[in-house]
Amino acid sequence: MPVASGAPGGADWTDALKERVAQAMQACAALVVSGQGSTGGEAGSAGASIAVALSGGRDSVALLHATREVLAESGEGGAAPLALHVHHGLQAQADQWDAFCAGLCERWQVPYRCARVAVVPVAGEGLEAAARRARYDALQRMCREEGVRYLLFAHHRDDQVETVLLRLFRGSGVHGLAGMPAMRPLSADSDTWLLRPWLELPRSAIEAYAERQGLRWVDDPSNDDPRFARNALRQHLPALAASFPSLYANVAQAAEHLGSAAHALDALAQRQLAAIRFAGRDEDTYSELDIAGLMALPEAHADAVLRLWLRQCGTRAPSTARLAAMRAQLLRAAADGGGQGAALRHDGLVLRRFQGRLLACRTPVAPPAVAVTLSWHGEATLAVPQWGGELHFLRTDAGSGGVPEAVLRRSLEVGPRQPGDRIVLRPGGPARALKQAYQEAGVPAWRRPFLPVVRAGGQLVLAAGLGMHHRWPVDANLPCWRVEWRPAAGLAPAPTNEAG
Predict the structure, then answer these.
(1) 218 neighbors 2 (Cβ within 8 angstroms)
(2) Per the domain annotation, does 367 fall within a domain?
(3) Which of 335, 375, 328, 370 shows the shortest CA–CA distance to 356?
(4) Residue where a domain terminates, one of 211, 230, 261
(5) Cα(first)–Cα(last) distance of the chain, in Å?
(6) Is residue 302 a part of any domain in this protein?
(7) How does the average pLDDT of the chain come out, rounded?
(8) pLDDT tens per residue across span 75-94
(9) What are the tens digits of pLDDT across the range 180-217?
(10) Residues of the domain holding 124
(11) Pair 380, 342 in one domain
């Protein structure tokens, strides 16, 4: 394993780099406490809630060293940052990098965690993008498990310039050309803040720091592989910088200007979005947009609103081509397609058109196909994890439409609908085929396979999403119960072998 080290010497950037780390944490803490941060809450104790993304390379090793020094000098009782490493398995040396990071943290008395991930590109995604997605998913998972408030990355000004130029060459818009932000929530629903304290400092500053501190690190040979776009660009930058000496400073400054423009655009889009956005109608829907209201906006405004909405749902903003597909398939469709509605996958979500609304839905898992047999002995609740919910039982007066206790004492079965199933939704009301009842209730067709039917002794008792069956003999002497289906907090059904 190639291990590089820096010998003492070179310019002393020690104070500047450590000061930027301290300033970044203080600025983010002030943002959170003031309520301006999207995750809210209070800024916790510094030592127990700070982590560094540690790859084992020079920049991340230097950041871990500087952060450890800052915490040690801050009077936090000797607290140390947590080091988080992601093992991608893409390089033959991946196990050795893990071992190097673990050994380094042991010597520095820094807690260390490693997550192993499988990098599997999805349709239209390159290996670099897939690895980045897997890395951030793993880091977010570890931060949630460890209660991390601030996650520090070692990105510097040279990284920022490369990012902006790459996005320019790929035709990115204003938000993309603003580059990487110095701080942001790790995701839309995360309590962790991502901080880049060295984003305004050149790579040479980190090189000098590592040399001055005598640090050791590992070198990733893929950083020199020109098949990767960033590496190919990096090889041309020295010649460009020779011709344009202010290249790095000017590109970084341009990114700041574009960031200000993006912020102003978002402020306008946010006002327009607030007028047409609604809460999701069920536990599987993040948010909804009124299509008529969106289409009434000028096209450029509608695009800005749609991009902002998707970012707030926790996804990447769509490319120009993807945005055009959304307009064609979801916004300009002549009809909702008989209840099923048009649907388009985007970055972990499914966008659906339904009843004049654009819905941002969670990507569905395979619906359960298994029937679960239960015994009820008077409990208030029976959990059914295979279907992601619970049965609740409430004692009610005889003749009020409840299910006779004698019926419920039979074997209960929670499972999928069957052909010919019919339900009476109010005492004395007509019987309806379940499909018709779901249509009349406005339950989307894609939700129905996830809603179980409950039977007792083979008789229909309840259809989730509709309610109880109300065709039972009335006898004032018989105890009766109201039965309800409630989705559990986990939302998605538990995976089963039967369901595939």
Answers:
(1) yes
(2) no
(3) 335
(4) 261
(5) 42
(6) yes
(7) 84
(8) 654 578 999 999 988 888 89
(9) 999 988 887 788 999 999 999 999 999 999 999 999 99
(10) 3-261
(11) no
Instruction: Say if residue 383 is in the same domain as residue 355.
Output: no
CATH at 326: 3.30.465.60
Does the structure show a pLDDT above 50 at 498? no
pLDDT digits (tens, 9 = 90+) for 265-285: 999 999 999 999 998 877 778
pTM beyond cutoff 0.90 = no
Q: H-helix or E-strand containing 273?
A: helix 247-274
From residue 452, give the alpha-carbon distance in Å to each of 326, 420, 447, 455, 487: 32, 15, 11, 10, 11
Say whether both 20 and 147 belong to one domain.
yes
Between CA 500 and CA 489 the distance in angstroms is: 22
Quote the crossing angle between the two packed helices 157-169 and 203-213, to the nearest 10°: 150
Q: How confident is the model over 280-317, as pLDDT tens digits? A: 877 778 899 999 999 999 999 999 999 999 988 888 88
**Dist CA 215 CA 384 (whole Å):** 54
Looking at the fold, whether 223 and 336 belong to one and the same domain comes out as no
Tokens 């003749």 correspond to what residue? 399
Q: Tell me the DSSP string of 39-102.
A: T-S----TGGGEEEE--SSHHHHHHHHHHHHHHHHTTSTT--PEEEEEE---STTHHHHHHHHH
Q: Which of 38, 58, 162 is CA-nearest to residue 66?
A: 58
Asked which of 362, 380, 406 is the last residue of a domain, the reply is: 362
Number of domains composing the chain: 3
Which CATH number covers residue 146?
A: 3.40.50.620
Highest mean pLDDT among 21-25, 64-68, 224-228 belongs to 64-68
The angle formed by the CA atoms of residues 161, 88 and 163, to the nearest 5 degrees, is: 10
Lowest average pLDDT, out of 11-15, 146-150, 452-456, goes to 11-15
Instruction: Count other C-beta atoms under 10 Å from residue 402's C-beta.
Output: 23
